[in-house]
Amino acid sequence: MRPILPASLWLILLFLAHSLPAQVNLHNFEGMDAATETGAQLDVDPNGAVGTKQYLEWVNSSYQAYDKTTFAPVFAKPVLGDTPWRAARMSNCYGTNGDGVVLFDHLASRWVLGRRQGTSSYYYCIAVSNTDDLTSSTLKWNVYQLSLNSLLGHNSNLHTYFPDYPRIGTWSDGYYVSIDLQDPDLHYKPVGVLVCAFDRTNMLLGTKAKSPQCFRTPNPPTTGLFRSHSLLPADIEGRNAPPAGAAENFIGIVNPSGKLTTSTALNLWKFHVDWTTPANSSFVGPTAITVTSYTPGCYTVAQPLKTTCVPEPSSASTLIAIDSVGDRLMHRFAYRRFLGTSARESYIVTHTVLAGSNQRTGIRWYEMRPTGQIVNSGTISPSDTTFRFMTSAAQDKVGNLAVGYSASGTVLHPAIRASYLDLPSHTAPTEFNLMTGTADEENSFHWGDYTSMTVDPVDDCTFWYVNEYYTQNQTGTGINWQTNLSNFKIVNCQ
Prior knowledge:
By secondary structure, the chain is mostly beta strands. The protein is 6% helix and 44% strand. The longest helix is centred in the first third of the chain and has 11 residues, at 7-17. It is globular and about 55 Å long. It starts with 6 loop residues before the first helix and ends with a strand.
């Protein structure tokens, strides 16, 4: 029987149990929080990227940058997410209601912002910086918009499908985007996906871009649940471009069907864009990738899209659990090309899976090749009662894999943790603590829909991770989340 100890002592013991390994150099600092963000919402969606000089974080409807050395905020206050488009008077992109994502284009050393906008007439909006320095007096954003309605299509009632959960990735020949199609007459059930390639070359120059090239899958959208929704486009990490002419890969989960509770596959698509002769462009797939059997986090046959089961200490009284977002693969689908004697192309992706009794969740990770061949995989699930979820992963230049995620349980307030392992040597994961939360989100099941692990483009070794936590219980109609930014380096990467 577990001894009865004060809550504060449990927190100390939990921290000691996940103390920092000698192989890790860690720094933490505070990111954006609900108190400083205009129009803070329950669904936080913290993400960001590390650049050559700053880290740029996006939360809800705003963004803020931080100096990489001092961690001091760059802007006097968080910047509303539509600011780059307002500066260019691109009115279709005014507003802050659309799943913003921050990337750093490693090959061009530029910042990239992507977001959806609109309530009935929908647009996808992209901004590309003209410099890598967010403090530069000459900073300007090259902004672009794509009208979505005609591309989304509509159901039998002529109601336009709702564009949800847009993901964006950088590739050498384009910026690639995936958007879920949801049927508003079927409780916003996903029925397909829209994918588009944007003209990266001209967007970097700030000149008129060629028309985006888009495909829907399936086409027409299904009348039932599309079980491979929320595709992720590959996103380049590091300085080495993919081979000339390489297609952009998209990856998707394959949720169980019928009465099944397990799946043994992921789906892979290949997007080849031809900017000279658009008719030659293609989006081919899916190709099924066989993986070790998994049950998506919190999955039930009766409600396959209801992925809410992660407990907090307060769940016994509030009856509110956290959404694991276990029905999809998680941001990002990180690509890295290694040259030299160990030349290879490596893709990393993660998701939340069932990992124990009482629906306990853990983190499944995969390393694959461009063909979809799985060369390494595993599940992060130590033998404890902790639920692990909301994951993101990346790989440094020597092949260390770092996976960040949230952790919570019946005696553990939502915390932020990470694990690392050496992919070439197939080592076991080592878990450590990034931030110990001291309170719960008691008034909502939302825990954001994604986080972000990225690698510093300067040393190509240092991992940067952002996620959310609480120091005071969020109750009633209150919104008081906080975010934490961590950077750490595995000592074998120099």
